[in-house]
Automatic annotation (TrEMBL):
This is Tc1-like transposase DDE domain-containing protein. Coiled coil: none annotated. Residues 128-288 form the Tc1-like transposase DDE domain. It comes from Latimeria chalumnae (Coelacanth). One of its GO terms (molecular function) is nucleic acid binding. It comes from the Eukaryota. Gene3D superfamilies: Ribonuclease H-like superfamily/Ribonuclease H.
Length: 329
């Protein structure tokens, strides 16, 4: 207490802690000074530190910043500054996709070849309606959540086993977007056929374009039902793309496991979710209204760009032997 009081009287500042003063005392008796000893070796320059960070990233791009900074012996803040300002790197999340077999790739390339041959011009490509279903949840369960606190609050957030959501369907080409259509419950061949008969086809008829467009659908079980295929043959004779049977083949076959070849998967769903999943919704009607509002923001220019991007993916898929195209776009 006496030493602390004299320290305050002499230096006019708060006294250091007892631990600090004991450390000074030990250092004074050992070296004759309380100053730190000169460090051995030369201090690495900024260029050398940055080069070490770059080499570490090239060798182990998946390593965490915490582990990387510990291995390099530099503060995380310094390393992040090098990564952001000097090297221009940023974190990227991987895209998880279904594994493709050699047969899947062959089928994908064959489908793309048929599409490019059938729709050889830009105007003809703009007539294809790409369609799909999508589940939209009341809240985004994949968002990053941080809890800032001096101590660990042991914060947990419960996630519902079967979170509330709505199933919607949409179709779009280079000029029109038809949707969203919301199913009551899960999608089966009856509800899907009812949607086509009572909603989608009447929408096309109201626009006066049904006789001049194609409809694409994937090979999901509701789409493959015999009643659905018969309706498509009647409503879009020789103008639909999907999964057929050996007895009743589709005019154009659509390959299995091709989630990155439709406008919905490439552009529409991501755009919609980015807009609506910034908040939670109390009920299905609120969520449906938000989806409708998001669709209303899609302009004719956006539709043309979405269509162009879809056909670019189809071309890339063909050129790369049926491989996924997300990393090539």
């Amino acid at each position: 207490a006496t030493i602390a009081r004299k320290f305050v009287e002499r230096f006019q500042k708060p006294a250091p802690t007892k631990v600090t003063m004991l450390s000074w005392e030990k250092k004074l008796f050992a070296t004759g000074s309380i100053k730190d000893l000169p460090r051995s070796g030369r201090t690495p320059t900024r260029h050398e530190t940055c080069a070490a960070v770059e080499e570490s990233i090239n060798c182990s791009p998946f390593k965490s910043t915490r582990k990387r900074s510990a291995e390099l012996g530099i503060p995380r803040s310094t390393m992040r500054e090098h990564m952001k300002k000097d090297l221009g790197v940023r974190p990227w999340r991987p895209s998880f996709v279904n594994e493709l077999s050699d047969n899947d790739r062959d089928n994908g390339k064959e489908c793309c070849s048929e599409l490019l041959n059938t729709f050889a011009t830009i105007p003809s490509r703009g007539k294809v309606f790409f369609s799909d279903e999508c589940a939209i949840y009341h809240s985004d369960r994949k968002r990053n959540v941080f809890f800032w606190s001096k101590e660990n609050p042991h914060y947990m957030e419960e996630i519902e086993h079967k979170p509330p959501h709505v199933m919607m369907w949409a179709a779009l080409n280079a000029r029109h977007i038809i949707g969203p259509y919301f199913f009551n419950g899960s999608v089966n061949h009856k509800s899907y056929l009812e949607m086509l008969q009572n909603w989608f086809v009447p929408e096309l008829d109201a626009l006066g374009i049904r006789q001049d467009v194609w409809l694409q659908q994937d090979g999901a079980p509701p789409h493959y039902a015999r009643s659905v295929r018969e309706f498509l043959n009647d409503s879009f004779p020789d103008r639909w793309i999907g999964r057929g049977s050996p007895v009743s083949p589709a005019p154009l076959k659509w390959p299995a496991r091709s989630p990155d070849l439709t406008t919905c998967d490439i552009s529409l769903w991501g755009y919609t979710k980015e807009i609506i999943q910034s908040r939670r919704y109390q009920n299905n009607e609120e969520l449906k209204d938000a989806v409708r509002a998001a669709f209303a923001t899609i302009t004719p220019t956006m539709l043309r760009k979405m269509s162009h991007r879809t056909w670019r993916h189809i071309i890339l898929c063909y050129e790369n032997d049926g491989a996924y195209t997300d990393t090539l776009d």
